[in-house]
Design brief:
This protein has helices spanning 20-31, 47-63, 74-78, 94-97, 109-124, 161-168, 190-201, 220-226, 241-248, 261-265, 279-292, 307-323; strands spanning 2-7, 35-40, 68-72, 87-91, 127-130, 145-146, 176-179, 208-211, 229-232, 253-256, 272-274. It has two domains: 2-150 and 306-323, 3-Layer(aba) Sandwich (Rossmann fold), CATH 3.40.50.2000; 161-303, 3-Layer(aba) Sandwich (Rossmann fold). The longest helix is centred in the N-terminal third of the chain and has 17 residues, at 47-63. It is globular. By secondary structure, the protein is α/β, with parallel strands linked by helices. The strands form two sheets. The chain has a six-stranded parallel sheet, sandwiched between helices. Strands 8-7-9-10-11 form a five-stranded parallel sheet, with helices on both faces. α1 crosses α12, α6 crosses α8 (220-226) and α7 (190-201) crosses α11 (279-292).
């Protein structure tokens, strides 16, 4: 099977750590025998960029004999029209929920346009993949497949905390809280995380907040094993990978209710969900976790989203798209 994957996000020389979940999926699909080529572009919310990408894609399709197209995000699916090959689209988050401006913290008009594009694409795709079932309420697709981004359980696994801290040169006895994202991305709400930790510091002044910024994906498990809790404060998410990866490392999680976090941590003792982004409520849960300083059994709950398993689900969707051709 020969597949062309279209994605608006892909690692570059200046941003080498982008979308590890897409890179990982490509790697595992190829391992599974899929002949897969990646067509990547940068939209940057520019109509001209999308037009140029569409023209380049037309030329590529004329010169190659792909069996189907797999688009990552709704905006990438738009490039496949007019559609001449079966189209599978994975919707991941911002394409469904909208875009938050990093300067103002408000949802943008271009984000609303992106939502309309995603609804258009969802109606016309041959197969739709959602990373969480909650997204279905905002898309007009009668049928869909829920396939969250998988976790590489060989990479994300528990190691002794003392070993992880020593390898990262982190203090041995200080409570460490992990913020799973870049402080520059407003959707992640780093300011909320800082407020929560500041409240906790009133009782535990030694607590430190560590942000996963410009960290190679291969090093993320070290941070997860070195820290005492993951504090997750995003305004919206599809199926946040950092939460699933933290579970694979048995790291306690304190999170707001976004994406599929509720179902991921519901059965995990030592993880806590706050329905609203209330700093005091989040701080109370975080303080409790830091008081206990115990690991969870989260790894047992993510076995079914091992990357090898989710890739087989994706291949089954490919086959369904081809059979309906």
């Amino acid at each position: 099977m020969k597949v062309l994957m279209i994605t608006s996000e892909w690692p570059t020389v200046d941003r080498p750590h982008l979308v590890p979940f897409i890179v990982r999926q490509v790697e595992f699909l190829r391992r599974a025998g899929i002949e897969l080529e990646v067509f990547h572009y940068r939209g940057n919310q520019s109509p001209l960029n999308y037009l140029l990408a569409w023209l380049k894609l037309r030329l590529k399709l004329l010169r190659s004999d792909y069996d189907l197209i797999h688009a990552q995000w709704g905006q990438s699916g738009l490039l496949a029209f007019p559609k001449k090959l079966p189209l599978v689209v994975t919707f991941r988050g911002d394409d469904v929920y909208g875009i938050i401006d990093d300067a103002t913290g408000h949802y943008t008009r271009k984000g609303k346009a992106l939502q309309r594009v995603s609804r258009f694409v969802a109606r016309r795709a041959d197969q739709v993949i959602l990373v969480s079932a909650a997204m279905a309420d905002l898309l007009p697709c009668a049928t869909y497949h829920v396939i969250p981004s998988g976790v590489d359980l060989d990479l994300f696994q528990p190691i002794p905390q003392a070993e992880a801290r020593a390898r990262l040169d982190l203090p041995a006895d200080v409570p460490l809280v992990l913020f799973g994202g870049s402080p520059r991305v407003r959707r992640k709400r780093y300011d909320l995380a800082v407020t929560v930790v500041d409240i906790v510091k009133q009782k535990r002044p030694e607590v430190q907040l560590i942000a996963l910024q410009n960290v190679p994906h291969a090093a993320v498990p070290l941070y997860m094993n070195a820290c005492d809790a993951l504090l997750f404060t995003s305004a919206h998410e599809g199926s946040p990978n950092v939460v699933k990866e933290a579970l694979a490392c048995n790291l306690p999680i304190v999170s707001v209710a976004v994406g599929d976090v509720r179902e991921r941590i519901a059965e995990v003792a030592g993880c806590y969900l706050c329905e609203n982004p209330d700093p005091a409520a989040l701080a109370e849960k975080l303080d409790h976790v830091l008081q206990q300083r115990q690991r969870t059994n989260g790894r047992t709950t993510v076995q079914t989203i091992d990357e090898q398993y989710t890739v087989q689900q994706t291949i089954a969707v490919y086959k369904a798209a081809l059979e309906a051709k």
